[in-house]
Amino acid sequence: MSEVRLQNLSKAFGDTIAVEDVTMTVPDGAFVTLLGPTGAGKTTILRLISGLESADSGDIVIGGRSVADETPAQRNVAMVFQQYSLYPHMSVKDNLAFPLRSPLLKTPEDQIQRKVAEVADVLRISHKLNNKATELSGGEMQRVSIGRALVRNPNIYLMDEPLSSLDAKLRSDLRIELKRIQESLGATLLYVTHDQIEAMTMSTHVGVLDNGRMVQFGSPREIYEDPINLYVAGRLGQPRINILPADMFAGSPDGARQMGLRPEHIQQGEGKPTTVKRVEHLGDQIRLHLKLEGHDVVTLTHPNSELEAGDTVAIQPRNPLYFDASGARII
Amino acid sequence: MSDTPFDRAAKATPPTVASKIRGLSDRAIAWIFVLPTIFLLLAVNIFPLIWTINLSFTNFRANRPNREVEYIGFRNYERILTDSDIWLTMQATAHFLFWTIFFQVLIGFTLAWLINRKFRGNDLWTTLIVLPMMLSPAVVGNFWTFLYQPQIGLFNYGISFLTGVDPSSFQMIGDVTLAPWSIVIVDTWMWTPFVMLICLAGLRSIPDYIYEAAEIDRASQWRQFWTITIPMVLPFLMLAVLFRGIENFKMFDLVVQLTGGGPGSITELTSINLKREAFEKWRTGYASAYAIILFVTVFGLASIYVKALNKVKER
């Protein structure tokens, strides 16, 4: 496994700028997650690192060696695509063995069989090994495509929303499994996701992208607790951070235009009165939809709360985040 | 009864065909639609086939309809299968089939592969390459006889330009060894585009992301070609071979235009041989048996082949 460094990386497709001047380091053995909405450049960064796209400018350094002019094979990276790109004419076993059968590696057949069986076991597809790749469900196909990356020992694993097409149970199981594998192998992993739980629980680092630019890079807690602007603050947090005018409550610093309130920034019981619009019981907690002077506020409350729609709750901010007119954070 | 505008409108509408022939069951109506087709099929396909089988056991001659017809059992079949000339014809046909299909698949696939690498103007190239296929075989046969002319033919001049041989020193059509190849060349020229189109469809059915995955999996171009391209195009290739095989087994028009079966009977393929027996020598019973043998051969080979094709597709 190796450290991967991106230096001032840029890529445009015609007039569309996909990646703009991105600099970041994926440390050896780190699990880095890229967050951002569709079109932010997450997938393009993966494709640039893998060598499927070539950068317009900037450099990619894998394990201390610039790979900008190398082919995907020379870079030795493994990638899990968002659409399960299995070889449809091969069996599951042959799909998993395909990277190992590369003439470059000269892996003995018994070793290939052992490795394939091992990975199939972890991903719980052992009983499907002799099936044709097209005779699988979507979740199984995605597991095979994850497996095809895991059989290898690459410089870095690149994964493009690998769990997004799986059902909730399997997703949470595989999330833990994937993290366990990454830790036990000491693997370097660059991961793209929309899922906040995946980003928060699996990653050692999170990079937030906006329109091809890297806005903030840090640990998941840093990104969550200390976002540098409104955009980053909105990327993490369920329910989403509430944005209110800064002057609604006393105590806002100079220049603050907006304040961001996560549920833990909202103290219930005193302050301004709000009307309860809707109560959502999530089991372990209750989500409250409140109306405060014409603004919507969503927050959480303890699971045995007796609140109903139409009730009044007083709320008050506690250490909220403040942002100026441009959206930048004021500390 | 109510008398709303809807009811009045319903009464004013003329009765439909279905209600006119009410009393007929759905099944009966279905038969009315299907019967003309069944009748046509019986008249132009099934009856002639049965009649041919019947004639194949007789010594009937169509040019002497008044002669008494004798049933002679399997004697026609016996005579055909033991006739060494017919085996030579079969050999010529097999030779022709093998080489035309070999060259058409080889060149057709290569062209498809080249066209599929998205370059500027590949649509124009596709159109140009496909042109020969759109011509009438009679026209093709006719103008290739000119191209093959030893004195004025472009083909001979082309060969002489490439090899330095005197253009009038060889005759493609008149020469015993070259004549079969002259037909193979023309058929390949004309039908390679067809094989190319089928291969192109096959190549275009392979999504790009499969190649991307293979590239990430560190497969070389060579390995990608043999483990992805070829296996995924194979069903299409086999289909092309089936079409060309069936077509060329009954090859007639091109050969008649080019060599007429000659020199001697070197290029006399089964279909030409059969036509001679049936409509020049008027041995109708004998020719019928011949036709049945050919039919069974093609049908049998094609069925085996289709089974293999399905197996490849299911893989």
Q: What is the strand and helix layout of this fold?
A:
The complex is a heterodimer of chains A (331) and B (315).
Chain A: E1 4-13, E2 16-26, E3 31-35, H1 42-50, E4 57-62, E5 65-66, H2 72-75, E6 77-80, H3 92-97, H4 109-122, H5 138-150, E7 156-160, H6 168-185, E8 189-192, H7 196-202, E9 205-210, E10 213-218, H8 220-225, H9 230-235, E11 242-245, E12 258-261, E13 266-281, E14 286-292, E15 295-301, E16 312-317, E17 321-323, E18 329-330
Parallel strand pairs in A: 3-8, 3-9, 6-7, 7-8
Antiparallel strand pairs in A: 1-2, 1-4, 4-5, 9-10, 11-12, 12-17, 13-14, 13-16, 14-15, 17-18
Chain B: H1 5-12, H2 17-20, H3 26-55, H4 75-82, H5 84-116, H6 122-134, H7 137-147, H8 154-163, H9 178-204, H10 208-216, H11 221-249, H12 253-258, H13 270-279, H14 284-314
Helix pairs in contact in B: 5-9, 5-11, 6-9, 9-11, 11-14, 13-14
Protein name (chain B): Carbohydrate ABC transporter membrane protein 1, CUT1 family
Subcellular location (chain B): Cell membrane
Transmembrane segments (chain B): 28-51, 96-115, 127-147, 178-203, 224-246, 287-306
